[in-house]
User: Fold these one by one.
Assistant:
Number 1:
Amino acid sequence: MKNTFGRHISVTLFGESHGAAIGAVIDGMPSGVRIDYELIADMMDQRRAAGSISTARREDDLPEFLSGIKNGYSEGTPIAFLIRNDNVQAKDYEQLKDTARPGHADYTGHIKYRGYEDASGGGHFSGRLTAPLVTAGAICMHMLNEKGIDIGTHIAKLKDIEDIPFDETNLKRDIELLHQRKFGVLDPQRSEAMIASIMACREQQDSIGGILDTAVIGLEAGIGEPEFDSIESELSHAMFSIPAVKGIEFGEGFHFADMYGSQANDAFAIDHGKIITKTNHNGGINGGISNGMPIRFRTAVKPTPSIARPQDTVDFAEMQEKKLTIVGRHDPAVIHRARVVVDAMTAIVLTDLLLERHGTLYFGDER
Amino acid sequence: MKNTFGRHISVTLFGESHGAAIGAVIDGMPSGVRIDYELIADMMDQRRAAGSISTARREDDLPEFLSGIKNGYSEGTPIAFLIRNDNVQAKDYEQLKDTARPGHADYTGHIKYRGYEDASGGGHFSGRLTAPLVTAGAICMHMLNEKGIDIGTHIAKLKDIEDIPFDETNLKRDIELLHQRKFGVLDPQRSEAMIASIMACREQQDSIGGILDTAVIGLEAGIGEPEFDSIESELSHAMFSIPAVKGIEFGEGFHFADMYGSQANDAFAIDHGKIITKTNHNGGINGGISNGMPIRFRTAVKPTPSIARPQDTVDFAEMQEKKLTIVGRHDPAVIHRARVVVDAMTAIVLTDLLLERHGTLYFGDER
Amino acid sequence: MKNTFGRHISVTLFGESHGAAIGAVIDGMPSGVRIDYELIADMMDQRRAAGSISTARREDDLPEFLSGIKNGYSEGTPIAFLIRNDNVQAKDYEQLKDTARPGHADYTGHIKYRGYEDASGGGHFSGRLTAPLVTAGAICMHMLNEKGIDIGTHIAKLKDIEDIPFDETNLKRDIELLHQRKFGVLDPQRSEAMIASIMACREQQDSIGGILDTAVIGLEAGIGEPEFDSIESELSHAMFSIPAVKGIEFGEGFHFADMYGSQANDAFAIDHGKIITKTNHNGGINGGISNGMPIRFRTAVKPTPSIARPQDTVDFAEMQEKKLTIVGRHDPAVIHRARVVVDAMTAIVLTDLLLERHGTLYFGDER
Amino acid sequence: MKNTFGRHISVTLFGESHGAAIGAVIDGMPSGVRIDYELIADMMDQRRAAGSISTARREDDLPEFLSGIKNGYSEGTPIAFLIRNDNVQAKDYEQLKDTARPGHADYTGHIKYRGYEDASGGGHFSGRLTAPLVTAGAICMHMLNEKGIDIGTHIAKLKDIEDIPFDETNLKRDIELLHQRKFGVLDPQRSEAMIASIMACREQQDSIGGILDTAVIGLEAGIGEPEFDSIESELSHAMFSIPAVKGIEFGEGFHFADMYGSQANDAFAIDHGKIITKTNHNGGINGGISNGMPIRFRTAVKPTPSIARPQDTVDFAEMQEKKLTIVGRHDPAVIHRARVVVDAMTAIVLTDLLLERHGTLYFGDER
């Protein structure tokens, strides 16, 4: 299904960076869901370049909805939308024709599509394709919010700088705080340090990555499907759709390798008549199914591959080695933009899994 | 699709640990594929308890094939097989009824299935369900081998002990070496140390996990699908189907967070008329598509949750807290058994993606 | 997905007529559904050869369940079952090797599977594969019955003999009547005439087909999905999985071609506070979605292709024309056996569509 | 998957009749396929109202392509396109609010979508949604043509008037002839009679339907998948996506009920070194798989439900019976427009099945 994701609610993505438009079709939307345009705008804003630290390309164009919405509510039919690509500077990319930018999909896309691909600006592999994902995710996010579920992601680490960790005793407050932040960091001081680090990186014609940390609160126990459609399988499948994501871990993840079972197990207890775990090393998931505790996972984001320094590469048409210097606007980091894409993809996955369990009448207002 | 994985070749899994049988149906098999029973037996052997370090339960029963094979070759129709559960000691689990074993799916399975589940021995969530996965994976592995593709996984780290890394200049030799190892470690000395560590862990009534490191060689460039069916999305989806896997990273993965773009990018070059990358930080994948270099990824395996020490938990039927002491046979580690499951799931994923590109006539002997 | 059908509840079929076993895996079963073994046996009995008019092969073996059922209730995990092929007379088929029986899948299967297929007894294309479908359908049928839905099919026409039509004013009674009939005909006299006709056909070494007429009562309005997953799309997809089915029509179907719109439209009215249609020319479906009236459709069943008369054909290995005389046991008609397969497939489709709308908690007992 | 159809190549449909736009996303397109704009225009022209016999609404707007095409060739990435709805006369539909037009999806859509649907002009259920299907089908048709496959459909019967049958000995000529016909009838005289019949029907404020007859030539043997993805299952699934289609039969279809097996079986023979069947009662399909003979099927199209005569119906908001007189432009028949939709859906299905067998590199030009 290549460009379609999800079973009950499914998102079909289209577009190239320098084509006419990008967009998506959301199928399986329950009817009667209020489209929260403000939330869409907020999340698109978080994804957009935030001031001077990000690419100069303006993308403040919001999605144009083509179908599936009437009077501000979902009709139940597919919601299609597009975002025009009206700020294209294709000539920046002309020099790159048939040149494999290291770390990019130019070469693999060329092999896959036999030279027919539009690689300009990254083409279909461009990070710009995350804009429709955020739009679709924002629509789902509102549905989840209505059910008491919320999702937040902060930059846990940007190269040498680490944010303070989530306050596990008050995730709700931290998540709300992140919703208001332009730059997704909990500690304002670390936030400034990170921004400075990104700026310095640009000076050095280099780029950096980091680690995103996500928390989901309010998700009921019993969500997720064995064997192959566990929450972990579904979330990881979704996360690796985000360009630059190269790792994911749930709960303690790779740190489990340093723990004994007696440390790693989360003891069950009863708290106010509700079953909880005393710790949450497993990130709210046992056997692939939610246990009612917050879902917790971290994603690794690699440094942006587009850097201004000269690099060794090949011209795959001429089959010869060459030096490449990428010009044009490029982010020295994308992690601060990726965090809301992680939120969005998480929202899509959880909506899908909830629909499996509760059916299409679960969501949407009564009329 | 819950218990079905794959689009072109798909595996449908069934069974509970203490039910009549476990097994799978492999649909979409090309016809004319030789069923390599020796390879199946070898891989099943790697998955099986290796001597005293693993659970005493004997599972030397090989799969009984029910359909889809004639004269040792696939017919093209579904291959169904089962493995009987004839060594069940259900009474060991009777005390566990309605008791949420920490780190296990007892509670989440109970919420999901409303008390109708057979939780005995982990039920459908048991690690025993990986036996059919290995069988299916072994059939695919042979298909890949015929195309010059091979897959190997070693225990890179078992708590404090690290294996020597793969020799990136001779992965073929290392992979072949691992195929012959009962215990999947490259360095024999580290292997002994790890086994000792597991034995010590049993003494302490505790368990340990670790990190698996996988290499795939011989995969052509251009395999994998954007946006949602990248190699990374598909492999991660598959890996999180393996119980105890809690993290996955491709190439440098989480270590990318410590690198500059100028360090992380893999420069392209031409080697004997073939495009290669000088380094392989991206694990052979750019934009979700194979670039012809070895696929490299690591998976985090948590410590086995079944430990003999008394643990705090709840009886979810009585809704009261209780102490739990798990008796019966349990592995103090599963990582040495999980490595071949990782190989198997990788083989299934890559076969599926190759079928997408090359069609069903690509595999199988000519007649 | 070849051998897997359904999205929420899915049936994966396996087996060849003369292989070790046939069977299926039902995934997506809600938990807590009572397995109605008596209904399974009844429906399997309807499918089985009824006395002297059908093939002498004994298939009274009921399915052996391997997983997913505990204490007579579904666990929520996959239900796998098999039926052994223990009455195989393979030598009857030896003469048929590489011979394309007219009307059969021998030749197409050979091209598709390149000679690796087990064509003996029809192999994977055998009508015997409908036994697992009936088993799976019977499980779904019980789920539907619990929701007040029932399904019945009669032989509307067997060559020159027509049954009396369904009494549209009392479908419930007619459907119940059909459940009790060994031979699915409403009018006992026509039933006898049809059986005599089949017997005569055997004498003439020939075969006959006919038309099945199906009614579904109790289905709520609003079930079915546009554009591509309408009730009609789903039911037709399912029906053409039944060997020998070559046509399907909903409501007036092909007879619509003889009607004016003013005759074909079903006027809406209100009856006891419920919206109904005064007529049901559209077979309970508008725009692909149920309107609360009975679902009505007819399926065309072709004469059994296996006839004892000498036929012209080819040996596709030798690539030469030859005469073929099929020996062994063969039904001069299968329509009386197919009717319950139609019921079964209908039950699977409707269960699937109801799960889409109502979620997995809709079915199954409360506990 | 509701609005997505196909596995290898998949079409995701969106739009409402009176919304901003309708359109589709074609995913899984092989790269290097020339987009035959002329063929698209031709097929869209056949679908469009042909002169005075069809609705006055002008829809000559051709699709606007948004992605996936570069320099007239498919890139391999999703092809998205839209068609604006700029000729909407919504006020014609205002009187219909909450009124169930007999034979339409107003009521079922209302129940399904709980009143949030945009029923105006039929909304998502409108025949207008077939325009994107024809666009997508035309792209596939070109791919098939390049492989020597062609598809044609004629109006075999329009109420009392029957066209001459296809000349089975020269289907190629008949299909080419149909491609050039505005009104899809083989015999020009019958064509005129049918048009006159439709015109008369309009005078009587009524509507008529008929039967479409389709032939596919050039399809290789071995295409189609058992059990559930037979050519018949896939084609029927696709055809019932076309509004007004209420029946489908393959080969002799319902007429099989009047034949003996000895008449119905197609004897195999060898013709110029190629295996053929002497007759083609089975419509080129044995066991769900193509046998190399022409694929032959017929579809029943019901009379257009929108008629100008007063009809009995209900207001489902007020829950009371009422008289309805539909005003506005409406076709007294759609069958002459539906024939190219049948061609288009057939092209999509066959492309999908060919991709399954031959992989994505099968189609598209070499470069």
Note: Chain A is about 30% helix and 20% strand.
Number 2:
Amino acid sequence: MPVISVPSVIAPLIEPVEGAEIVTWNVDTEPSRDDIEMVVVPPFNSPYITRLAELPRLRAVILSTAGYEHAVRFLPPDVRLANAVGVHDSATAEMALTLVLAAQRDLPTFVRAQDEGRWVPMEKRRSLADQRVLVVGYGGIGRALAARLLACETSVTAVASRARTGDEHVEVVHAVSELPTLLPEHDIVVLAVPLSEATRGMIGARELALLPDDALLVNVGRGPLVDTDALIAECATGRLRAGLDVTDPEPLPEGHPLWSTPGVLISPHVAGGTNAFPPRQARYVTTQIEHYLRTGEPVHVVATGEE
Amino acid sequence: MPVISVPSVIAPLIEPVEGAEIVTWNVDTEPSRDDIEMVVVPPFNSPYITRLAELPRLRAVILSTAGYEHAVRFLPPDVRLANAVGVHDSATAEMALTLVLAAQRDLPTFVRAQDEGRWVPMEKRRSLADQRVLVVGYGGIGRALAARLLACETSVTAVASRARTGDEHVEVVHAVSELPTLLPEHDIVVLAVPLSEATRGMIGARELALLPDDALLVNVGRGPLVDTDALIAECATGRLRAGLDVTDPEPLPEGHPLWSTPGVLISPHVAGGTNAFPPRQARYVTTQIEHYLRTGEPVHVVATGEE
């Protein structure tokens, strides 16, 4: 019976799977068994991934993060690596919606007024309802966000690297090359794309200039998607606003002008990693275990260890 | 052809209706016509409602607020009064969701850290996803909120004055008398009920004590639904949290302890009145005009002027 190790944070949530023996291991100590075939690596434990070499019967490694590049070089020969798919979508889309709503409904103003004990009259009358939202990056996070936005009575336009037909939320997915014609037609833009050479700096001075006055840019992808100086320039004049869960540089150093730019709301890279993670990772791991028992391989394989 | 007056804020949004003459009047000046049959009163113009007596052909008055008691005594004999139905649901549900998300995702902490230019590590891992939300008050606001919450992967339980069958969002609507058994089973409670002698103080020390640790109470109804002192006591110990768009007293005076109670987030009664209002009120008024032309009466009549 294959032995499969899972992190302690999700072990209590894994239903027993017939035909597999589940053991708890966080990868940060000596393995209690040398016959583990599949390892589920906990989030934030990448420094310990060298221990995988201690498992002679290892066949598969399942990460708890979407990113996997850091793990490839530690893979023993022929071992399959799968990343985490979908387990952070809910939390990240939720944080994007939180930043959008907080910015639209002027929440930072109310927090500051509360600290001063002042009941301030409302100045802005912005709503999220009726706004035209451009979701840039239409993977799991983008789809989870689209569902939330549509329930908030917005219109949603989706953008991905290539154009394709849509889904239950959008009729079509536009290509990123269409951004110049799409940006002027949207009140809110949310970036939910990974960082790559293709996406680095995708929102610079030229793209920001295409946005209508008072538009809101929200970034839950990676900081370098946006030209920070260009964003500061547009927000400092009051023309644009921003909600940023990620920044460039990150962490944002003390005294950086972004901290105090008007209309900029910053959360310190907290989109993922909520209590929504363990149950979703547990469901994903159960799928992985069942697939492994059936085929001898994990699903969502992103790399294989080389000799 | 019946002459119908509408406020300037919605006049540009009203499509021409065959068989009616639409004029613009904000009720705060002398009427330009004495043959107006139906008046749409703008929000916040209730002080001027005495002018209705100057219209000899008046048959119907349409308010822009859900509340209507203030207008009844100014109705000329036999004139029908309709309140605004549904036009503020979207904005109010949106603000409830904003308070819920801001509280769950710790947004006030990030606003304060930003003001200090500090990148703080995340302490709480709360999500909205997976939370059990009790929506107390299941009229238009409650339903609009349920739609938003379900898209955020929560479970939703609805409560109204009397039990009834549910809708597309919930299987059943529970009676308010079931609150004592429902409160312990929910992580988040949102109050969206009007104030009446039946609802005043509906959440007191006893009800708060029934909530699980770390539960969040959000109030977008009216302040006196909640016993303020009891709420302060539960939040001061860190056991409960609150997001309040309405307070008792209101406006909350300088120096009131609620301002600085830990875990309490206050917005100054801003749930309604966003830019989402004019298009919704315009649609509602169009419905009213068409109904009036067909039947000689408005819909949603809540009072009739007495001799």
Note: Residues 89-266 of chain A form a domain with the Rossmann fold fold (CATH 3.40.50.720).
Number 3:
Amino acid sequence: MKAEIIAVGTELLLGQIVDTNSAYIAQQLTTVGLDLHFKCTVGDNLERIKSTLRTALSRSDFVITTGGIGPTLDDLTREAVAEVLNRPLVFQLRLFEQVSDFFRRLGRTVSDNNRKQACIPEGAIPIENPVGTAPGFIAEQNGKAIITVPGVPHEMRYFMEHSVLPYLREKLGIREVIVSRVLKLFGIGESMVDERIKDLIEGGTNPTIGLLAHTQIGEIHIRLTVKTPDVASAASLINPVEGEIRKRLGNFIFGADEDTFEGVLSALLRQSGLTLAAVETSFGSSIIQTLKGMEGSKDFFRLGLTLVNPDMARPLLRAAESLPGGGELLGEEAAGWLAEGARRLAGSDLGLGLTGRVGKEKGQDHLVHIALAHSRGTEVLEQRWPFAMRFIENRMTKMALSQVRKFLLEARG
Amino acid sequence: MKAEIIAVGTELLLGQIVDTNSAYIAQQLTTVGLDLHFKCTVGDNLERIKSTLRTALSRSDFVITTGGIGPTLDDLTREAVAEVLNRPLVFQLRLFEQVSDFFRRLGRTVSDNNRKQACIPEGAIPIENPVGTAPGFIAEQNGKAIITVPGVPHEMRYFMEHSVLPYLREKLGIREVIVSRVLKLFGIGESMVDERIKDLIEGGTNPTIGLLAHTQIGEIHIRLTVKTPDVASAASLINPVEGEIRKRLGNFIFGADEDTFEGVLSALLRQSGLTLAAVETSFGSSIIQTLKGMEGSKDFFRLGLTLVNPDMARPLLRAAESLPGGGELLGEEAAGWLAEGARRLAGSDLGLGLTGRVGKEKGQDHLVHIALAHSRGTEVLEQRWPFAMRFIENRMTKMALSQVRKFLLEARG
């Protein structure tokens, strides 16, 4: 069966806002096995919305519209659907009461404009909206359906999850459920992951195995997907394959599914009972910003110091020796000196120091030193990356925190 | 005249990447006065690309495709355009030499696949690609045209700017140029701006005046747009209106056009010769991260201190008195104490301190205190925002830096 998405809104068409809804809806539709062949964006114009709907209905089984169901004059999706299906719009008291209720809870009164939002094409299935003011609907005709959801992203998501996907699952007679587990990796490249589990990817049928590189956050995600008659039996299909992958990729895997790198590290730090301090320089890493935002950071994060000027460093860090390595906040020795200074000043168990230079010309690499000082010494990691690499700062932030994670895992044994 | 955009690519359709190209192209098309009525996304499927092209050609004068002109088997835009226009694809030696040349510069050799990229529909105008490997083309037919550009964003932008817009300007006989000036404001709401310049907005014809609120960065942009026979005369039309707006909105306007808030503040700080230090707490503001990233930060940014634990504060800041106001890193007094501590510890002219509590329940506001310590005393600004406000951390970061800007403007007189 085929599905098609229509995003309605002149502001989308003119590029004043970027359409992220369609991407989300597209992803959701694949989970119920619908084929998506077209996505269209149309402005707030009745005739053009109608013509887009007609084209879509002629070639797809399910047409999902997003946007254009607000209370104002230029919200025309409702009218367009009704006219294309040749049905009147019918006022639904229950929907109106719900809209009124929503306004009441916000301490506002419903206006006459909002009456229009409670109108849906005759015979359509209403979809209530507990998270906003625009109700949606599903209008079936000749074995096809137009499904109308709001354009406000969090409302649209609520509709998809609570009404649209259950409706589609029912319609499509989907008894099988699709269950996925995502393993998340940092500190290893996509081709290396591919090399280590190529045979599993190629031989994988249930679960199938997919790799996705998230360049911006430097993570590789391995997705294991199974089709099973019920959720309960999914684990028995996924677990053995997951075990094999974990055996091959070990500590590069920092978490699964909803885990975040920061969440996992924060839990590890809290379990360890160790405290941490960090010094950053003018390199754009954001270790301190990340640490302070972590859950429970008060329990483990003692101090963050940001220095862009070398002359401040020695008095502040109460160092016996002056800044090594040329007196600049750069290089391996300086990073170690900063990490030890952070640890000393904060009286913490661990100290992180990072120095870095961003490559600006071809042939010049980004050069970063990440130092971790602990009770048994100081380790410095050197990182060279090609000058053209984007997201270098994010990557180095994570690499520094990844060193902390590695230390904690080893300390735990 | 009407234009239409077709984005080609299964990864776009399935939402694996979000289509930002269409938004950019849409914005550019408005600058040459074209009406954009539809935007469609289609997967890498020959028949469906052809059908989308046919529908587009039937209702629009210019059809712009982006994507699907790479070297691989699933790049099918070229073939689809040729078939829809009923013309053969013709190999263009000059384009192929250019592709080969690009590979040579990268130190790689061109492959046979790339030959395909040098093929364009017979009679089409080739567009060379000095920034990548995929050449584009403009194929005219019956007074209409299909314009094919790459999907890689920076290549697409290069094509639009250097070939497509000049072509459209020529075709549309545009002698007039459209010139805009954007005034950027922070620290004032959209409705307040609207109220103060409503008469100018309503009466504005050349320039027309538009308001746009950028919620995420907390800025309001006022766009003045004129149509003029030449760029030189634009200033004489814009300047008087801009002058009137500046009179009414004064220092809320921090810059114009390409100015950024950070860039303007950095220039002000460097001009003033004053130095600055900042203390942040566990509130998610990123004042220190922002300051260290500013151009020339070494000249003015002395020190950033991040404290999430109150017990570290007194010894570090070498304060005579302990943390006031209940001993927590919260509230007006604590913010002032931190700002003074930052100034004392760093020996800087200015000290910034920020404390904050994020509202998590309905009825509980976000409550933030921003303190600026200088040679004549310490000023503390209290900010209350509704609990549901997103981007509160960005907003408060900017509000703190805005206090610095205000101080510098006043000090300058």
Note: Residues 177-256 of chain B form a domain with the Alpha-Beta Plaits fold (CATH 3.30.70.2860).
